[in-house]
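The instructor's notes for this session suggest beginning with a concrete chain rather than abstract definitions. Hand out the sequence below and ask the class to guess, before any prediction is shown, which regions might be ordered.
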Amino acid sequence: MEGNHPSISLLLFPFIGRETRLVPVQWGSICWRRHQPQRETASKERSEVNSASPKYIASVKQAHSSNHKMVLLKLKCPPERRKAVVAVSLSTSPPTCSLGAAEGSTPPFRIVLTLRLDNSTQPGRPITICTRSTVFAPSYEGYGLDTLALGTVGPLISNSDPQKQISLGHFKPHYAHAAGPPSANLKEREWLDFLTIPAEGAVEVRHDLPISRMFQYEDRLTKDDMKVGETYHFGIHTGYLGTTWWCWGDLDGDLKEKKLSAWQEGINFEKAEKPTPEQVEKEGWVLGENPAELAFEDRTGSAEFQVVN
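After discussion, reveal the predicted structure:
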C-alpha cells in the first residue's frame, strides 16, 4: 500500500438499537435497505427529535458536552491479514457554496464521500457493509437528526480565521431497544442500512448541506458571518469511519435473496449462533466476515470549499 493513510481495522457497536423498519430505497447509484417505524416507543422518541423538544435536545447536548465518546471502537489488524481496503475520499459538490442559492435549489450543496475497493484479496467481487451509526449512513427527510448531526463530519473551519468554526451538530441520541431477541437475519433488523461497494469503480454517499442546514445547530455564527471568497476546510471524524459487519457480494445481485447472518468471523459479541453448512446451503445464509480484516483509509484528510455569491 502506498502512502501513509489513517487506517481503521475493526469497529464495533451493538446491532440492538431500533430506529426504522425495512423497505428498499434507491438513492442514485447506492443501494440501501431501510425500515419504517414500528414500535410505539421508537416512534415517540423520533417525534421528540422531529419536534425539537427542548427537554430531549438539552439532554442530548449535555451528554455530548460532558462525556462524548466515539461510536465505534477501533482495533488493529496486521496488514497481511487484511482481505481488502476501502479507500475513502471526501469532497463537496459543487466545490463552491453559494450564499444566494435559493432554498431547495437543485443540485444542492453536498458533502460527498467516495468509497473504492483497494488491494482486495478477491478481485472482481463487490463488498457489502453495514452503515448504521457511521458517516456512510443515509439521512432521511423528516427523520429528525441527520447523519451529519451526529458529529460524523466537521466542523467547517475558515482557512483565514481558524477560530471561525461552524458546527454541523454533535448529538448522541438514544434509541429504543427491541422487545425480545433481534432476528438472526440482519436484513430483518429494522434499524440497519447496508451499502454495496462495487468491485470496479466507486460508490458515492451524499449528504445535502444547504445554508439553512449548515447553521441549524451552530450556536455562535450565522450565515452573515460567511464572507464571499472565504474558504473552509473540514474532515471526517475517524470514530465514524468504518463498519461492524461486512460480507462479499452485492445487495442487488448475489445477495438479493440471501439472509445476512448476525454471526461473523472474529469477535462474536452478540453470541449469535453460526448457521451450519447445511443451513447455509438450503436456507441461503451469508456469514459475516471478520471486521478486523476490512480496513478503511481516509485518503483525503480534509476537503475544502469556497464561499460565493
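Then share the key points. The radius of gyration is 20 Å. The longest helix spans residues 54-67.
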